[in-house]
Amino acid sequence: MAVTKSVAIVTGASQGIGRATAVRLAREFSAVVLVARNKDELENTASAVKSAGAEPLIYTLDLREPQAPELVVKGTLDRCGRIDALLNIAGAVPQIDLFEMTDAQWDDGTALKLHGARRLTIRAWDALKSSNGSVVLISGSAALDPKPAFAAVATINAAIIAFAKAFAEQGIKDGVQVNSVVPGAVMTGRRRSFMEHWAPEHNMSVEEAMKQFPEKAGITRYGKPEEIADLMAYLVSPAARWMTGTSVRMDGGEIKGV
Question: Same domain, yes or no, for 121 and 234?
C-alpha cells in the first residue's frame, strides 16, 4: 500500500457540481477519488483531474446500494492509505408535486442523496478521524423555502443540513470538520435537461423558460458549477478549519440573509 500525501473523495463526480469540484480539488490534493454511476463520464472527469495535477481513482458505483461505501473506502485506503476529505455531492431528487409523488419515488429520492451520503460518511469516519479530515454534504436552497411542487427536494435537502450538524457535533469530539453547502440555481446539465422537458409543457421555448427563473427569483443569473466548487475547496482547506457545523448558502441573493 502506497501512502498518498492527501486524498479527497468526491461523489457525483461524473457531471455538474461534482465534476467541477473534483477538478478544482485536483489543485489541492494529490489524489481525487471519483464516484458515480456513469463510467464514460467518470473517465472524462478523471482526465481533467489528471491534467489539473492529481491522481484520479475511479469507482463506478451506485451509492444507493448499501455495500457501495465499503468498496469506496476500503479501495481508497488500500490504494492511498488515507482519506482527508469527503465531499458528498451525488444525488438527484425528483421534482414532483407533493400530492402526486409516490412512496417509491420518495424512497428513491432519499436512497442516494440522503442515505448514500450517510452510509459513506459513517464508513469513512475512522479514516477521517485519523487524518483530522473534513466532510462536506451538499444540500440546496429549496430546504429554506419549501413549495408543494418540489416538496421532496426541500425535505431531503433540509435533512442533509440536519445530518451535517449532527455529524459536526460528533466531529468536534473526534477531530473531523463537517459542513454543508446550500447552492441556489446552478446551471448544470441536469437543470438544462429539466428545462427542456418543462418548457414545452408550459407553452414556452427553452430560452424563455431559462430566462424566467432568474427574473422570478430576483437574481441576475444562474450560478456556475465552478463557483460552488471553489466554495467546496475552501471548506476543506486549512483556511476554513475553524468552521464546522455551518450551513453555507451561495444562491446569488435569492434568499436574503446570512
Answer: yes
Neighbours of 53 (CB within 10 A): 13
Q: Residues 210, 179: one domain?
A: no
Pair 92, 204 in one domain: no
Q: Is residue 257, in this structure, part of any structural domain at all?
A: no
Q: What is the pLDDT of residues 11-50, one digit of tens each?
A: 999 999 999 999 999 999 999 999 999 999 999 999 999 9
86 or 147: which leads in pLDDT: 86
Are 210 and 169 part of one and the same domain? no
Q: Quick one: cell of 192?
A: 438544462
Residue entry with cell 461524473: 14
Q: State which H helix or E strand residue 7 sits in.
A: strand 7-11
Total domain count for the chain? 2
For the stretch 78-105, pLDDT in tens is 999 999 999 999 988 877 888 998 999 9
Four-CA torsion 234, 4, 70, 15, nearest 10 degrees: 50
CB of 90 closer than 8 Å to CB of 113: yes
Residue-number span of the structural domain to which 122 is assigned: 7-184+224-248
In whole angstroms, how far apart are CA 129 and each of 21, 176, 231? 23, 6, 23
Q: Which burial class, exposed, middle or buried, applies to 44 when counting CB atoms under 10 A from its CB (0-12, 13-18, 19+)? A: middle
Of the candidates 224, 218, 225, 197, which has an alpha carbon nearest to the alpha carbon of residue 209?
A: 197
